[in-house]
Amino acid sequence: MTAAAGLAGLFCLAAAVAAGAGLEGYSHRIHPLGLLGADAVPGALAFNIAGFILPGLLAALVALGLYRTLPTQAGWLPRIGARILLLSALAFAAQGVFSLDPTDVDGPGSGLHAAAWLAWWVAFAAGAPLLAMGMPRIRLVTGVAVVMLLAMMFIPATLLEPPIAQRIALAAWLLWLPVTLAGTGRAREAA
């Protein structure tokens, strides 16, 4: 499970760096990450697999693992939170299935990609705090990750460019995965 958490971040980062370097005129400061996997972009399929689908599926394994590590006395809310985190991870993977259409940003393809992005962060913001209710050792890191992600989703574009905010939110989620597992490992050792 720890390897899956680390690999999710490594795959996403490596895919973003490699695809961004290979796409002429692309800037991580200016362009959304989804553009690297957009229709008709060279290497889009490879980016969608390595940047969205694999990290999402690995995060889904982490969510399932977190569900299984919940102590029996944790109650229903943390279990529901772990299941919502599973939905969040699958929504992240879905961004690679539903790629952007740069010629029709308001079209159905782009709409599905945007809906998957929305489902990813909304589900994470709802599920992570519920999970943390049953795991006291991850409450602080979960609170920081959720607040950071929410701040980046709602920060005005006049204060921070949306592509930068997007990457900060993504980094908060990708870092939350292994840090949370480290916290649950310490909790199991202390028990």
Report on the architecture of this protein:
By secondary structure, the chain is mostly helical. Helices cover 73% and strands 0% of the residues. Helix 1 packs antiparallel against helix 2 and helix 2 packs parallel to helix 6.
Distinctive features:
disordered C terminus; single chain; 191 residues
Please specify the SSE layout and strand pairing.
Layout: H1 2-22, H2 44-69, H3 76-97, H4 108-133, H5 139-154, H6 162-190
Helix pairs in contact: 1-2, 1-6, 2-3, 2-6, 3-4, 4-5, 5-6
Condensed summary:
The chain is an all-alpha fold.
If you average the pLDDT, what whole number results?
93
The succession of helices and strands, N to C, reads HHHHHH
Coarse morphology: globular
**Number of beta strands:** 0
Radius of gyration over all CA atoms, rounded: 17 Å
* Biggest sheet overview: none
Strand content: under 5%
Q: Alpha-carbon distance between the termini?
A: 19 Å
- Give the helix tally: 6
Helix proportion range: over 70%
The assigned structural class equals mainly alpha
Low-confidence stretches: 186-191
